[in-house]
Prior knowledge:
Blueprint: E1 7-12, E2 15-20, H1 31-46, E3 52-56, E4 61-63, H2 68-71, H3 76-81, H4 86-89, H5 91-94, E5 99-103, E6 106-108, H6 110-117, E7 120-124, E8 128-130, H7 147-152, H8 154-163, E9 166-168, H9 169-174, E10 180-182, H10 187-199, H11 203-215, H12 221-235, H13 239-249
Parallel strand pairs: 2-3, 3-5, 4-6, 5-7, 6-8, 7-10
Antiparallel strand pairs: 1-2, 8-9
Bound molecules: acetoacetyl-coenzyme A.
Amino acid sequence: TETYENILVETKGKVGIIRLNRPKALNALSDGLVTDLEKALNAFEDDAAIHVIVVTGSERAFAAGADIKEMAKFTYQDTYLNDFITKKWGRLATCRKPTIAAVAGYALGGGCELAMMADFIIAADNAKFGQPEITIGTIPGAGGTQRLTRAVGKAKAMELCLTGRMMDAEEAERSGLVARVVPAADLMDEALKTAEKIAGFSRPVTMMAKESVNRALETGLNDGLLFERRVFHATFALDDQKEGMDAFVNKRPPNFTDR
Ligand code: CAA
């Protein structure tokens, strides 16, 4: 795999791992970092051997937000013309393969927004989530007012965006922002175990499941149900559906071929 300045990239079997790595700035999402992230995500998306992507940070910080030192001097024209922020960061949200954010420490501002672009978040018990943009004279710009509201509902999203307060992992799980909280020491083991479990299934079927769940956030119920049913029907065109069901009937483990 390629080497990058601001992230560490490795693969474990069918799992691609991206570790944000600007420790001195608590993984603040500089232009250099998000450029690296976009490239690494593109490479994993294009690699047929990779089934699942895990994005993580350090024990102290997943990411403490957009790089305030870099951003402080931007003009409106800079932000508008470059479509500042989502142009590069948004790549995580458009991945077709399943993605997991493994979050320890601070996930603030853009860090929280990046985590929310993953399919789900597994949090260490020391994780802290928040949208503190209001405290520095701006508002969330990469989904904080939208994805957070869908995840935790209006009351809590409004309170977090208006006060900038952080919520801990326990509150984040209780309110639906994170799928699961694990002891900080076990975060990567648990995230990898979960990723490997998904990676063991049929790649097209995991992608279809993801696509269908995401549809729920874009449509009314009946359109969503129709979308789901059509994709469900489509799984019957796959060798892996035949294999999975035959394996169950004959009490043997399935051997999926991603076809
Ligand atoms: N941008 C740039 N540098 C950052 C940073 C950020 N978002 N967050 C932390 N750092 C830097 C600090 O400046 C500091 O660098 P120096 O050692 O050179 O001074 C280093 O990381 C360590 O940080 P602290 O000394 O502040 O560490 P702490 O433990 O005292 O505090 C913290 C940790 C509470 C996370 C604090 O760093 C903090 O509040 N960070 C900013 C959080 C924030 O406001 N994020 C939102 C950014 S706006 C945004 O993301 C816009 C958007 O929606 C896309």
